[in-house]
Write a structure and sequence with these properties.
heterodimer; A: 111 residues; mainly beta; 5-stranded antiparallel sheet; 54% strand; globular; B: 113 residues; 7-stranded mixed sheet
């Protein structure tokens, strides 16, 4: 059974600090997605990673993909309160647009 | 450009009833997917439609069905509702096939009593 695991599940961090969220998946996938969800809201697409070694950055967030290790990371630089949300990774192992989502990482940034 | 629109936003039903949820994708988007989100199971894929054809289906019982119309609008139907069907149902759309960004709607929160 395909598993997509994120860690940590919950992250409380101080403003200005750096941290990394990890997404491991159990089968090969060339496509990996990162989404953000605010409480009571829908999902917002952050990054689409489509090849081994892909790296994308926007603002304080940077995502990377290592398909050989079946690992993606979402790195947060100098966190601010506005980044508080739940972050999901998702894989598409058969390139069929059927996304398998991770458990989610709930991020809380405090002053 | 308008985003993905889902109606209704909230719905309360009783066990045994059926329900139909509606999704209007972003103009020009031909692919529509449906996901169920619950605290226990997380986000799970239901099905995906492209140009009125179901291309993929998740591991849900036959009580869950859907369709897509020629204008790309999609509906999802759940018959004989069970308590466990209580969830946030999210619709997402994108232009075509392949690794593209999915745009999600605000969802329909279904409560089954």
């Amino acid at each position: 059974e395909l598993k997509v695991e994120q860690n940590p599940l919950f992250l409380s961090m101080q403003e200005g600090k750096n941290y990394t969220i990890y997404c491991n998946y159990s089968t090969t996938s060339d496509r990996l997605y990162w989404y953000r969800q605010d409480p009571g809201k829908s999902l917002e697409s952050l990054f689409v990673l489509l090849s081994n070694g892909a790296v994308k950055q926007e603002g304080r967030l940077m995502a990377s993909l290592d398909t050989k290790a079946r690992l993606s990371t979402l790195h947060i630089t100098a966190a601010v309160h506005d980044l508080s949300a739940t972050y999901f990774c998702a894989v598409d192992p058969n390139n069929t647009d059927k996304l398998i989502f991770g458990t989610g990482t709930r991020l809380q940034v405090f002053p | 450009k308008a985003g993905v629109t889902q109606t209704p936003r909230y719905l309360i039903k009783t066990r045994g009833q059926q329900v139909t949820l509606s999704c209007s994708p972003i103009s020009g988007h031909r692919s529509v997917s449906w996901y169920q989100q619950t605290p226990g199971q997380g986000l799970q894929f239901l099905f995906e439609y492209f140009s009125e054809t179901q291309r993929n289906k998740g591991n849900f019982p036959g009580r869950f069905s859907g369709r897509q119309f020629s204008n790309s609008r999609s509906e999802m139907n759940v018959s004989t509702l069970e308590l466990g069907d209580s969830a946030l149902y999210l619709c997402a759309s994108k232009v075509g096939q392949g690794g593209e960004k999915l745009f999600f709607g605000s969802g329909t929160q279904l409560s089954v009593l």
